[in-house]
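> example.struct
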C-alpha cells in the first residue's frame, strides 16, 4: 500500500474538477488521479480552500505526520500572493518547516512552481507585473526548498501546456479536469523516474463533460462576482500602489545582484 498525503489549498482539494455525480458531490482533482496511479494508493487529502503557507504548517502538517506517508505533496502559496500582507520570509519559514519535516519522516515530497495568475486572468500589464513579481518570489522559495530537500519538483510555470485555456476552469485560477489530469501525469512521471513504484499513468483525457456556457455564467453570478468584490477591496488597491512603485523602479535601473536571475517581463495576453 502507498500512503499519499496531500497538503495545500483549493488546487489540491480539486476545485475546478467536480466529482462525478453522487450523493455527496464535492471535488476530485489531481491528487485523486495520482493516487489511482500508485500501487494500492491510499489518499488522505488534507488541503483546504483558502489555505496559506502558515495554515498548512499549523493545521495540516501535524495530521500528515501522524499518517506516516510514503508520498506527500505540498502545493500552496497562491493565496499568500493574493493578499496584501504577503511576506516572503514568513512563507519561506513555514514551507521550510513543512517540507523539512515530511522529508525527515522519509516521505517522497512533491512540490510545484505555480504559473502566473496575472497571465491566466488577463490582467492589465500594470497590475499583472507586480503580481507576477510575487509569483516569481514564491517560486524562488519553492525552488530553493526543492534543491535543499530533494523534492520531486514540477515546473508548471514553464510548462507551455499549462497556459492552454482548456487546462483551466471558468475562474481561471483552478485547473479544469484536463488540467488536474495534467498535473497528476507530470508527478506520476517524476515518481517513475525516481524509481518509486507506480502503476498506470493517469489518463490525460477528461471523462466528464466540460461545463456549458450556462454553467460558467451561473458560477460567475453566484460565486465569481463575490470573489471579484473581495479581491477588489483587498488586493486591487494594493496592486495599484505596487504598480506605481514598479513604474518608479523601472525608471531607475536596479543594481545587479550576484547570483540572482532577473525577473522576466510579465506575459499578458493581448485583448
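> example.seq
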Amino acid at each position: 500500500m502507498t500512503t499519499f498525503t496531500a497538503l495545500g489549498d483549493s488546487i489540491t482539494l480539486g476545485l475546478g474538477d467536480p466529482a462525478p455525480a453522487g450523493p455527496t458531490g464535492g471535488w476530485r482533482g489531481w491528487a485523486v488521479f495520482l493516487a489511482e496511479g500508485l500501487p494500492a494508493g491510499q489518499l488522505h487529502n488534507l488541503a483546504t480552500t483558502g489555505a496559506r503557507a502558515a495554515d498548512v504548517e499549523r493545521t495540516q502538517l501535524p495530521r500528515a505526520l501522524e499518517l506516516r506517508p510514503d508520498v506527500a505533496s505540498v502545493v500552496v502559496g497562491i493565496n499568500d500572493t493574493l493578499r496584501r500582507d504577503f511576506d516572503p520570509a514568513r512563507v519561506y519559514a513555514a514551507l521550510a518547516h513543512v517540507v523539512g519535516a515530511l522529508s525527515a519522516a522519509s516521505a517522497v515530497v512533491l512540490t510545484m512552481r505555480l504559473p502566473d495568475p496575472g497571465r491566466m486572468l488577463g490582467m492589465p500589464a500594470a497590475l499583472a507585473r507586480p503580481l507576477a513579481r510575487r509569483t516569481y518570489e514564491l517560486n524562488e522559495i519553492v525552488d530553493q526548498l526543492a534543491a535543499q530537500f530533494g523534492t520531486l519538483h514540477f515546473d508548471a510555470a514553464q510548462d507551455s501546456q499549462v497556459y492552454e485555456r482548456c487546462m483551466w476552469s471558468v475562474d481561471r485560477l483552478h485547473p479544469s479536469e484536463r488540467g488536474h489530469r495534467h498535473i497528476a501525469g507530470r508527478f506520476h512521471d517524476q515518481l517513475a523516474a525516481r524509481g518509486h513504484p507506480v502503476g498506470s499513468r493517469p489518463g490525460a483525457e477528461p471523462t466528464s463533460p466540460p461545463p456549458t456556457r450556462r454553467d460558467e455564467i451561473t458560477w460567475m453570478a453566484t460565486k465569481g462576482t463575490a470573489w471579484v468584490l473581495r479581491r477588489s477591496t483587498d488586493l486591487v488597491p494594493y496592486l495599484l500602489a505596487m504598480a506605481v512603485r514598479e513604474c518608479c523602479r523601472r525608471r531607475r535601473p536596479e543594481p545587479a545582484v550576484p547570483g540572482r536571475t532577473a525577473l522576466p517581463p510579465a506575459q499578458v495576453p493581448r485583448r
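> remarks
The two ends are 50 Å apart (CA to CA).
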